[in-house]
Each structure stands twice: as structure tokens, then as C-alpha cells.
Design a protein that fits this description.
The protein is mainly alpha-helical and 155 residues long. The chain has a two-stranded antiparallel sheet. Helix 1 crosses helix 4 and helix 2 packs across helix 3.
């Protein structure tokens, strides 16, 4: 190998290492961007899950008894598929509501214990009416805020 080839070889190794560094930096930035987007999506989802899921589960059960999967499906149907809560969010909530005596779950087949059908208790129906009343103004205000922000951003 003569000196020119050696210099060319060394510069190409340095170029490769430089390019590798640049790509790693680009990767880190893209990954950070993706994580940020995912966090934002999750936090939007949490508004629904934390704020609206309990009252909407009460609402669905006020119409009639249902199991967890059906509750998720009914919410999805009623929101035209825009919000389909995961059963991973629904079942812990149902357990909590059952523990607080707002709902009662009965096995469809006590021997097989395949699925529980949940119904509102009188205490639960009363709680539903109270929460519905309390939330009405908050939901109306939220809709107004969303409308203003939407107009500011997109019109």
C-alpha cells in the first residue's frame, strides 16, 4: 500500500465514523420525537380514560346490564369508533366500582365463571345521577375550550 492509498483509506474510515456519528444523532432525535408524540397521544387518551370512562360506564350500565367487553364495544359504537376503551382500562374500573357497591357482577354461568354481567345497584344509579350533574358544566366548558383552540389552530 502506498501513502496515497493509505491516506485515502484512513480518510474513508474517518468519513465512515463521522457518518456513523451523524446517523446515531439523527436516530436519537427521531426516537425522542416519536416518544414525545406517543406521550401526547397517551395523555389525550388519559383524558378519556381517567375523566370520562367512569361516567360513561355508569351511563352504559344505566341502559342495562353488560359485561366488560360489551361495554367497550358499546362505547365504540356510540362514538362511531372514535373512542374504543381497552378492556385493560375497563376491568380494573369495574372491579373498583363493584368494591364500592356501585355495581354488582354476576357470573353468567356460576359453574364455568366465564364472564361477569354487571348491573348498577341503587347506590350506583344514585352515584351516576350525582356525577352526571357534576360533570355537565365541566364537559360543556371543555367543549367550548376545544372549539376555541380548534378555531385558533386550524381556521
Amino acid at each position: 500500500i502506498n501513502m496515497n492509498e493509505l491516506n485515502l483509506h484512513l480518510s474513508s474510515i474517518e468519513d465512515i465514523k463521522e457518518e456513523e456519528k451523524r446517523l446515531q444523532q439523527e436516530y436519537k432525535e427521531k426516537l425522542a420525537e416519536l416518544k414525545k408524540i406517543q406521550k401526547e397521544k397517551e395523555s389525550v387518551g388519559q383524558v378519556f380514560t381517567k375523566g370520562l370512562l367512569p361516567i360513561y360506564v355508569f351511563h352504559i350500565l344505566s341502559i342495562g346490564p353488560s359485561n366488560g367487553n360489551d361495554i367497550a364495544t358499546k362505547i365504540g359504537d356510540r362514538t362511531n369508533g372514535l373512542w374504543v376503551p381497552s378492556t385493560g382500562g375497563i376491568y380494573p374500573l369495574l372491579k373498583k366500582l363493584e368494591k364500592e357497591d356501585y355495581i354488582i357482577g354476576k357470573w353468567d354461568d356460576p359453574k364455568k365463571k366465564f364472564q361477569k354481567i354487571y348491573s348498577l345497584t341503587p347506590k350506583g344509579f344514585n352515584e351516576y345521577k350525582i356525577r352526571k350533574n357534576l360533570l355537565k358544566q365541566k364537559i360543556e366548558e371543555s367543549l367550548k375550550v376545544f372549539e376555541i383552540i380548534y378555531k385558533d389552530l386550524y381556521k
